[in-house]
Specification:
By secondary structure, the chain is of the alpha/beta class. It has two domains: 123 residues, NAD(P)-binding Rossmann-like Domain (Rossmann fold), CATH 3.40.50.720; 181 residues, NAD(P)-binding Rossmann-like Domain (Rossmann fold, 3-Layer(aba) Sandwich). Helix content is 34%, strand content 15%. It has 13 helices and twelve strands. It is globular. The two termini are 26 Å apart.
Length: 324
């Protein structure tokens, strides 16, 4: 059995989970890919053709129907996290490939959302200094005015597990919190302790607006020029969800036209980012490299569960199977 561990940028999979036990018990040969295989189908397929089992790190390497069809040896595909929109489950089923998932804790992504909100509100992108980023003294000393959050309005687009966690922190900061999504009910909003708003009110009233929707056909390109035109020119827009929910070109235009003060983002249309990425070279963008889920605790869950998924599949009783 040949096992590939993909996109282990930190080279920590084998230190956080007992993959060696699979080698001992199942005779597995384990290959760790610490660098991204790229976006070209031919290169990805050539690298992965020998493997019976692949462990994918979130959506870093997609598995559309065309790639799955070109991997005849693949029998088990494990995705870290509870869902993966970049895996074609129908195609996997057609080719007899079992797709299993691992556990996931939502707290990390919610915490990172607040790291971005606070970084934007206090302009840490400009003010932060350290040994690696020395202070440009004296011109860099207190060069911006921060924005206080108490008494301001936090808008949450999507009040599920992540959105509700972000909303509750906003309440703790003394913010007015409003929420909207297509299926959000007044009962759910009341349960979390926030106000139900219309979509236009959400964008027009929010001083900080944070997106927490699942990516689906319905949510793709959901937020664009219309919504940004409703926003206050001093508002902060935050996206730690999925890039394709937002029309990137419209976000760039809103920032360039100063319809929007800042955008704090952790997700991108193409990852890893190309050097000439337009969004991150746009005025008013504060960006992190999709690290909302990148913590030691989260990765220990991912890799430990992946080992158990592989062991269960090898025994003939797959667990945590995703259904198309």
């Amino acid at each position: 059995m040949r096992i590939a561990l993909l996109d282990d940028y930190h080279d920590i999979a084998r230190s956080l989970a007992d993959f060696d036990s699979l080698a001992d018990q199942l005779g597995a040969q384990i290959t760790v890919f610490t660098e991204h295989l790229g976006h070209e189908d031919a290169a990805v397929i050539e690298a992965l053709q020998p493997f019976d089992v692949i462990v994918a790190m979130r959506e870093r390497t997609p598995f559309p129907a065309s790639r799955l069809a070109a991997l005849p040896n693949l029998k088990l595909l494990v995705t870290t996290g509870r869902r993966n929109g970049s895996i074609d489950l129908d195609a996997a089923k057609k080719h007899g490939i079992v797709v299993s998932h691992t556990g996931y804790k939502a707290t990390d992504a919610a915490e990172h959302t607040w790291a971005l909100i606070l970084a934007a509100a206090r302009r840490l992108d400009v003010e932060l200094f350290s040994a690696e980023r020395p202070l440009a003294h004296p011109s860099g000393w207190q060069s911006t005015l921060g924005t206080g959050l108490s008494g301001k309005t936090l808008g949450v687009y999507g009040l599920g597990n992540l959105g509700s966690r972000v909303a509750k922190v906003g309440l703790a900061f003394g913010m007015r919190v409003i929420a909207y999504s297509q299926n959000l009910t007044a009962e759910r909003a009341e349960e979390v302790g926030v106000e139900l708003a219309s979509e236009q009110e959400l964008f027009a009233s929010s001083d900080v607006l944070s997106v927490h929707l699942k990516l689906s056909e319905r949510s793709t390109d959901l937020i664009g020029a219309t919504q940004f035109a409703w926003m206050k020119p001093d508002a902060i827009f935050v996206n730690t969800s999925r890039s394709k929910i937002v029309r990137t070109e419209d976000l760039i235009q809103a920032l360039e036209n100063q319809q929007l003060y800042l955008a704090a983002v952790d997700v991108f249309d193409v990852e890893p980012l190309p050097e000439a990425d337009r969004l991150t070279n746009t005025r008013g963008v504060i960006a992190t490299p999709h690290i909302g889920y990148v913590t030691a605790e989260q990765f220990e869950i991912f890799f430990s569960d992946a080992v158990e998924d592989i062991r269960a599949w090898a025994s003939g009783s797959p667990i945590n199977v995703l259904q198309a």
